Amino acid sequence: MACRLPLAGAPRALQPSGGARAFHASTAALKPRRQRNRNNPFALNLMKHFQYDDIPTYGHMKLQRQRQMLEYYRLLQHELPQLEQLHEPFQPAPASNLLQFQFTHYQGERHPGARRVVLHVDLRDLFAADVLKTAEAKHKFLLLAGARWSPAQADVVEALNAAQQKGAEALAKAYAELPLGSLKIGCSQYPHESQNMKWCSDVLDRMLAEAQAEPAFTEIPLDVRPYIKSNARGGRMPMPSAADFPKEWL
After folding, report:
1. What pLDDT, in 10s, does the model give residues 131-141?
2. Rounded to two decimals, what is the model's pTM?
3. Dihedral of CA 226/154/239/144: which sign?
4. Is 130 left (phi over 0), alpha (psi -120 to 50) or beta?
């Protein structure tokens, strides 16, 4: 004998006669739309007509903007003058402070590049501070710097190599007169910028200590290749050839 079951949640008109209606069917869903919206305060047909007693959405946005500007004006008028009590006169750094650290901050955003720290040192100021006693130590310091050294011109490297061949006195005079440029040391391998700052400072200290140790490497000239531009990149100096390097290098 076949038995037909009623459809769960179906209206009474769709259910077979004599079948029991499912107990979980919602009575509100079975009511007509007009009857359901009778008690709904958000129904569109129950909303009153606009009586021109309010401003549109754009007007509210404009008022909100004016409120924000008034808040800033109050800060300018009442709170910013109190900051004058915290004013301190600017004092430039003394000449003994040779190290300049460069930090990169992305305001309002966390970025992996914010941990990078770059140390800049002017070599004229560093050598004038008498940290390296001899011209040989300064020469070895530039050898250790390598590509981290940025001379003002490529001719400076050639002039230092020429002064090195003349002797220690000519080399010391060249270090005192020529524009030596700056030294740059960067680090971003640690998670905090204070750690990268300490690493750059430690590298500079090790370079200064190694430059004063033996051997002095006075017979090795400075490499001019990193500072010569090729014609293909828009430079004016030609590419170096075999005649530009010492014979003992070949």
Report:
1. 888 888 999 99
2. 0.58
3. negative
4. left
